[in-house]
């Protein structure tokens, strides 16, 4: 059985061949959530001119003089034709080009009346105040959005400012999810509602994958048919359940007939020890997740998403360090990834009823990494992986037992 670190290295070494370089160009308006395949560089200095940062008067200083002759008005989108001599000024609006050698005095620091020829300022400002200088944010040719960025609205705004109208992005990998089990979606007292399918639909959609989903009962023929259909078109086949040691855990036996070779099966982690990863010569991958819903949530973040990153220019989920809110020790025998919430005071691991307690896990903000034997004092930093598609702090208020 691999350690978590060994499994991470094995995932990083996967080779998906030409599937890793499939790129398309789409309008910026449709690029949110996609992974950028080429750097976006700005085509001009930003700002492109010396820009007033507030409404007021652009004055050409003349020693300690506080009275300036008004030469005109400059609004956003217009320019002042000519130059100002010392002791002269123009009325200027936020965002307008400031004439050369001027300083902007805020409107509230001036005294004037409409139509009069001069403006009085209540102080002599430092030269160059309230002006954003040409190129101070970026110079023409600077990369503003780097390859591998998952495009959020702010990135799209910066890209548009840089002059881009479209973006080269990695094509959406096709992920076929096959949930398994007689108990899932059935009827009767022992039936279990399908929570894994919607979970993976949402997570994979947030990551920019095209998701196909089907269900197979614990029947060798039905499962084989579902997996063969999935293998015909998918870049990644994802199964939930059927990878452990039970009599109905049929997934591992299907790999040979589908042309996949096992990379690893079982990792020393909790939850999700039975996770399975396999690869095929044409670059397709097979990720077998356990059936327990919290195990699916955890192993999707720990193993599925790094595998998906091979189709997205090497993108990977981002771990951060967050201080622990209180003392915590892990005396278990496996590398633990425990749901935890970021709260006032730091990171607080969930109080849960084990890896079947989806309610407590879903109320958390992500997973805290707790190696075997780890001991934390309040304030010690811990590695934390935020849930994909989840806004930290936007969670249900749950009873104390589950928090």
TrEMBL record:
EC main class here is transferase
Q: Which reaction does it catalyse?
A: adenylyl-molybdopterin + molybdate = Mo-molybdopterin + AMP + H(+)
Pfam families named in the record: MoCF_biosynth, MoeA_C, MoeA_N
Q: Per UniProt, which keywords does this protein have?
A: Magnesium, Metal-binding, Molybdenum, Molybdenum cofactor biosynthesis, Transferase
Cofactor(s) demanded: Mg(2+)
Q: Which InterPro entries match?
A: MoaB/Mog-like_dom_sf, MoaB/Mog_dom, MoeA-like, MoeA_C_domain_IV, MoeA_C_domain_IV_sf, MoeA_linker/N, MoeA_linker/N_sf
Q: Which residues form the MoaB/Mog domain?
A: 176-310
Say which family it is in.
Belongs to the MoeA family.
Q: Which NCBIfam families match?
A: molyb_syn
Q: Name one GO biological process term.
A: Mo-molybdopterin cofactor biosynthetic process
Which superkingdom heads the taxonomic lineage of this protein's source?
Bacteria
GO CC entries = cytosol
Which source organism does the UniProt entry give? Saltatorellus ferox
Give, as in the UniProt entry, the pathway in which the protein acts: Cofactor biosynthesis; molybdopterin biosynthesis
- What protein name is recorded for this chain? Molybdopterin molybdenumtransferase
GO-annotated molecular function: metal ion binding; molybdopterin molybdotransferase activity
What's this chain's function?
Answer: Catalyzes the insertion of molybdate into adenylated molybdopterin with the concomitant release of AMP.
Question: Under which EC number(s) is this enzyme classified?
Answer: 2.10.1.1
């Amino acid at each position: 059985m691999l350690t978590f670190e060994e499994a991470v290295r094995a995932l990083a070494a996967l080779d998906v061949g030409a599937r890793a370089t499939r790129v398309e160009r789409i309008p910026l308006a449709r690029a949110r959530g996609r992974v950028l395949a080429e750097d976006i560089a700005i085509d001009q200095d930003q700002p492109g001119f010396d820009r007033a940062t507030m409404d007021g008067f652009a004055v050409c200083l003349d020693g300690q003089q506080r009275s300036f002759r008004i030469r005109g008005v400059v609004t956003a989108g217009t320019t002042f034709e000519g130059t100002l001599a010392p002791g002269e000024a123009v009325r200027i609006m936020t965002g307008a080009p400031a004439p050369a050698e001027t300083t902007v005095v805020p409107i509230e620091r001036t005294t004037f009346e409409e139509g009069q020829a001069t403006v009085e300022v209540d102080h002599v400002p430092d030269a160059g105040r309230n002006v954003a200088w040409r190129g101070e944010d970026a110079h023409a040719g600077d990369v503003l959005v780097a390859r591998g960025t998952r495009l959020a609205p702010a990135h799209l705004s910066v890209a548009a400012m840089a002059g881009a109208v479209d973006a080269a992005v990695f094509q959406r990998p096709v992920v076929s999810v096959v949930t398994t089990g007689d108990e899932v979606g059935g009827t009767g007292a022992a039936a279990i509602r399908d929570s894994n399918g919607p979970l993976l639909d949402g997570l994979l959609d947030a990551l920019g994958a095209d998701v196909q989903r089907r269900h197979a009962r614990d029947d060798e023929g039905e499962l084989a048919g579902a997996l063969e259909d999935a293998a015909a078109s998918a870049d990644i086949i994802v199964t939930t359940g059927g990878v452990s040691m039970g009599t109905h855990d049929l997934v591992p036996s299907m790999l040979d007939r589908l042309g996949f070779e096992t990379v690893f099966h079982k990792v020393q982690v909790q939850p999700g020890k039975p996770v399975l990863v396999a690869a095929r010569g044409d670059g397709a991958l097979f990720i077998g997740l356990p059936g327990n819903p919290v195990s699916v949530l955890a192993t999707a973040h720990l193993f599925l998403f790094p595998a998906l990153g091979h189709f997205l220019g090497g993108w990977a989920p981002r771990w951060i360090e967050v201080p622990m809110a209180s003392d915590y020790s892990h005396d278990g025998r496996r590398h633990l990834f425990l749901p935890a919430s970021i709260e006032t005071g730091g990171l607080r691991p969930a109080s849960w009823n084990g890896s079947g307690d989806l309610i407590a896990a879903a109320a958390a903000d992500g997973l805290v990494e707790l190696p075997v034997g780890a001991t934390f004092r309040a304030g010690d930093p811990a590695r934390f992986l935020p849930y994909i598609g989840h806004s930290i702090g936007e969670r249900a208020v749950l009873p104390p037992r589950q928090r």
